[in-house]
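Practice set, problem 2.
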Amino acid sequence: MIQNENRRGFASDNNSGVHPDILRAIESVNHGHVIAYGDDPYTEKAISRMKKIFGEDTEIYFVFIGTAANVLGLSAATQPYHAVICPGTAHIHVDECGAPEKFTGCKLLTVETTDGKLNVDLIRQHMHGFDFEHHVQPRVISITQSTELGTLYTPEQIAEITSFAHQHEMIVHMDGARISNAAVALDCSFHDITGGAGVDVLSFGGTKNGMMYGEAVVFFNRELCRDFKYRRKQGMQLASKMRFIAAQFDAFLENDLWKKNAAHANRMARMLHEAVRGIPRVNITRKVESNAVFARIPEEIIPRLQEDFFFYVWDEDISEVRWMCSYDTTVEDITGFATRLRSLIEQGA
């Protein structure tokens, strides 16, 4: 679907443009020659900045996309006879076309949740078969922050999961595609909800929050990344002109651009929630904690509403839709959307 270029929809924060500061950062390093494949001063500077945030004892590797960050991060911690425990809504299970299974060889053991979040009691159902050669061996617990349902793990909830995992000689992976939105909503640092809470490996995303492309795999457990440089190369994620990824991360983190962008997206989601929740036949289905709003609306108006403001249907069986706000969502976008939604419902009443 081709949308009016002057109108922003609510399909995904991936659909947003690139923040002007990020574009300027790319342009600023686009001169002269530097050594390729990350052996350049811009990559060194970006990694140094990230280590100040995540910890000097971390190891950080840039890749192109989030699926690669997840798959390579998981592959560093697993063998093909291992299993990864994750929610049934997890991106690695639903939206990565089987890439985790294909490239790690591991089985994904899913857990049904009400809010997209794992907890120790839910994880226990898969904690069996250890040392029995006929069963896959549970090795990784993967959580998403913020979750695919827009919910958040507190630092204490993460620490409870990581403590349980480490007691069983397992590791915890975090899909942090929207970790900026989570950190802002929880009013905490990146470290508080990652390494500080016991996470072993993080897929750190910026694409959904104003970057053009590029993600980072952050290892807090350095034992996991002894051969990661080979995995990254073999996984086709070693960027030759890495300075253009690094420059984006440097600008993203400098002067808290990540925080400003995420705070705006979260604020727009709250505004959207307030704008639509009083409209007849609109039922908000989930708590709005980050930059996502979920709602049930009349099935018959969905295609017409999508013509003006594109978004995705989350659950076709119950006409549940998902509306995502971005760093560049405007008040006018929200008022226009709410007005159109109300009009379509009233026309069909």
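Problem 2, part (b): a different protein.
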Amino acid sequence: MTATAAAAPRRKRTAMEVLSSLRQPKVAVMLALGFSSGLPFLLTANTFGYWLRDVGTSLTAIGFISWVGLAYTMKVFWAPIVDRVDVPLLGRLGRRRGWMLAAQIVVAIGLIGMAAVGTAGGLTAIGAFALLTAFASATQDIAIDAWRIEAGADSDEVGLLTSAAQLGYRVALLVTDALIIAAAARVGWPMSYVGMAVLMGVGVAATFLAFEPARADAVLHSKAPLWTPRGFFDAVVGPFVEFFAKHKAVGLIMLLAVALYRLPDFVMGPMYNPYYHDLGLTKDTVAMVRGSVGLVATFLGIAIGGLAAIRLGVFRSLMLGVVLEGIGTAAFAILALHADMPTFAAVMGLDSFAQAFAGVALVAYMSSLTGLGYTATQYALLSSTYALLGKFLKGFSGVAVESLTPSHGLLGAYATAFIATGLLAAPPFLLFLLLGRLHRRAPATAQPVTA
């Protein structure tokens, strides 16, 4: 919001030019990398909770063990290393690709470890492998997000790659939220997790097919080595100095808005699958609805979210997205009263659409705020910010439901918690409304925001 705007507005690409861009190999690579990025996420979160609930684990324990996902919020602390240092042994692939491959290998090892020890090995043992998986997955995200931003020749291509990444990511979420549940009903949870480890091969193949982006090389090569005092200071402190020098005090409002944006989606996250279990919905029912209605709604959310960012502007899209998130989360309360197939499909479709729409808007906004030379660290800062509060609060979701159960009954407790979580959409809506007005008041010096 304080950066100098381009002297002349860029010509918007025509629909045919956009369709032509989709044929670029890097779009297909980004789709596969997005899939690799999304695959481990639910396997240490909501789907992991379903497995634990299946063997009788308490909601309180499920909520607390979801804190392994805090690894995603801490990645800003090791992002400077990913930004500035080649990974040992794999550095010949290039910095971004080397870190991707190393992280993908460790993710696969972590998933196989979860399958090998199983719940019979105790929550501590399986939780340790879940933490390893989450840590490696967060590291993979640092490298992939930097590659996505640096591989785009301009902001239009970054937007195109962002949409491809979101599509791949959402497909992975459906696989680990639907296909794995159907598989678990037939071959058990451990074998299903081994299958997910094998699917990390999609990301490995994409890493070998990707090129090493050179757009930031000149900037990075001009910086002092990480192991020198100057280089260490620039790698660790420089991204924050550059961010606040560019955005001034408004940067604090940006970070707060980003931190609150996904609360409706995150806070009750560990309780979704236990909720379906306690509603009496079968694994096949959940898998079928997620793989049909959920899939279509997700694709529509991504497409309409990208279109809305272009037609309405990113700030209006962000506000619409968070409202949809709040409504989609609160709608799950309806299932406590009426949990037949059509109602479940309608609620699932609404929530899938809302999450995909909001996700595209937020990722596009955060990507527009990064600067070359600090891409990995600044995006890690923003993505850690949006995940930190929600991933912390979701650890108490099981406590909240169980504390409400004596007065509301189990299903009534779930419903009350979902409605309360949906209301958390109000603060980020107001903050992005404020940011949009500040942006319009200073059009000549506004930070370009791309869809």
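Answer key, part (b): The longest helix spans residues 155-187. The radius of gyration is 21 Å.
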